[in-house]
Amino acid sequence: MAHNVIILGAQWGDEGKGKIVDLLTKSCHGVVRFQGGHNAGHTLVIAEKKVVLHLIPSGILNEHVNCFIGNGVVLSPQALLKEIAELEKMDIDCKNRLHISFACSLLLPYHAAIDKAREKVLDKNKIGTTGRGIGPAYEDKVARRGIRAGDLLNPKTLKAKLKALADYHNFILKNYYQAETLNADNILADLLIAAETIKPMLSDVATELDTYRLNYKKLLFEGAQGTFLDIDHGTYPFVTSSNTTAGGAITGSGFGPLYFDYVLGIVKAYTTRVGSGPFPTELQDEIGKRISERGHEVGATTGRARRCGWFDAVAIRRAKQLNSFSSLAMMKIDVLDGMEKIKVCVAYKHGKKELLLPPQSSEELANCEPIYEELPGWQESTYGIKEFSQLPENAQNYIHYLEDIINTPITIISTSPERDDTIVLDNPFIGSVNTESVLYF
User: Rounded to an integer, what distance in angstroms lies between the CA atom of residue 179 and that of residue 282?
Assistant: First the structure.
């Protein structure tokens, strides 16, 4: 039984982390976001009602849970206030349960302007960002010129810091990108308005989390994006600007590494990615189109169509190496219903070599060809099934097969977008909850 659990994507993001976080928060006391910004999109479906969260942790939908935004997040005040307002329209209390680190770097309109201008200049070589300013906000943080959430408490200091930042970014916008400059006075006015709502939620998040630990309260750390969008370990440069792997939970929250008990990776029963970059198992045929349509594969944040492909066990082996997964949760197995054959990428062919782990260079990865094993599909529906034994035999065999080739147990299986349509064989917070088990060791 674990007390402090990390949940993160094992592929290129959009795996369905929000549903699993929401499901498991029934067993914990706090949920923590530790990296990324409002480029994240966590979609939840509860009683057939869709909720999309970008900054606020998915645990906010459970009224007994407190939510924390750690120092590793770049925080857009306007995006945060919009999200709070949308949740309050649904009678979900946010302000009294949301705690924001003083050390969060603020994402400002300058960052979005730079992001969009940069992608426009790159044209065909663009990275495929969301255009929301995440990368430029992290750049300011690393360059030590950023404005932090704690600066909202001191308007005089805030004004001086904003003026310096405005001079810097407006110079680049005008002289390098030939783009329109922004008015610092207008941005300051908006910040001061937003500060009135945000200030009561500011706190020393690292200390609060440690207090939870000392009182044996259970914490869930919610990752954004996915493993292969990690700034260091992903398909660089086609990555996000933060550490999306398990190590990011430590630096992005201030929670000590030895205090974590469990790492749960989230995968789809197939693979998707949004934006540019190499994708060895991508399907650009009718099967890929069918997976996209059945899986409703459109980005929750960008509205862009996701690229779809077969399950990539080579990538997942690397993801396990980077994150030390305790187990995996598999999403959207129902999307594969009705397929005669299902393929799994078990290795890459790179020149004359056969690789069981992916190369770290995107250029090399782009030159890899997938080596597939083919498994029989199933014609029966898996939609809404809640017991492993009720899955079609070939669906059970597919899960067992994946466990074998990635040497990791699959302990949660989602069979529809709904919260309760889930097979939970093992809950990290409470242990085994089902006598049936897909564990093979």
Answer: 36
> How many other β-carbons are positioned within 10 Å of the β-carbon of residue 273?
24
- Catalytic annotation present for 140: no
Burial readout 155-183 (b: 16 or more C-beta within 10 A, e: otherwise): eeebeebbeebbeebbebbeeeeebeebe
**Given 3, 29, 38, 42, which residue is catalytic?**
42
| Structure-block tokens of residue 169 | 């970014």
Two tokens, residue 129: 């960002």
What is this structure's pTM? 0.93
Over the stretch 252-285, which tens digit does the pLDDT of each residue have? Answer: 999 999 999 999 999 999 999 988 899 999 999 9
Q: Which residues pair with 48 in a beta bridge?
A: none
- Please write the tens of the pLDDT for every residue from 159-194: 999 999 999 999 999 999 999 999 999 999 999 999
Domains located in the chain, CATH noted: 4-101+202-259 (3.40.440.10), 105-198 (1.10.300.10), 268-407 (3.90.170.10)
Q: Name the 3-class secondary structure at 161.
A: helix
Q: Is the dihedral of CA 328, 329, 335, 336 positive or negative?
A: positive
What local confidence, expressed as pLDDT, does residue 301 receive? Answer: 62
Give the DSSP letter of residue 148.
Answer: B
Euclidean distance between the first and final Cα of the chain, in Å?
A: 18
pLDDT above 80: residue 299: no
Bridge partners (DSSP) listed for residue 343:
374
> What is the distance between the alpha carbons of residues 418 and 401, in angstroms, rounded to a whole number?
26
Task: Tell me phi and psi for residue 53, to 5 degrees.
Answer: -110, 145
**pLDDT value, residue 441:** 29
The H or E element spanning position 85 is helix 77-89
Instruction: Tell me if 9 sits within 8 A of 45, measured CB to CB.
Output: no
Catalytic residue among 14, 115, 421, 426: 14
Across 218-237, average pLDDT? 96
Q: Which two tokens stand for residue 228?
A: 């292969």
What is the DSSP pairing of strand 42-46 with strand 49-53? antiparallel
- What is the structure's pLDDT at 290? 96
- Cβ atoms 150, 102 nearer than 8 A: yes
Q: Is residue 54 flagged as an active site residue?
A: no
SS3 166: helix
Query: What DSSP string describes 67-79?
Result: EEE-TTBEE-HHH
Report the alpha-carbon distance of residue 308 to residue 277 in Å, rounded. Answer: 13
Closest C-alpha among 201, 165, 178 to residue 81: 201
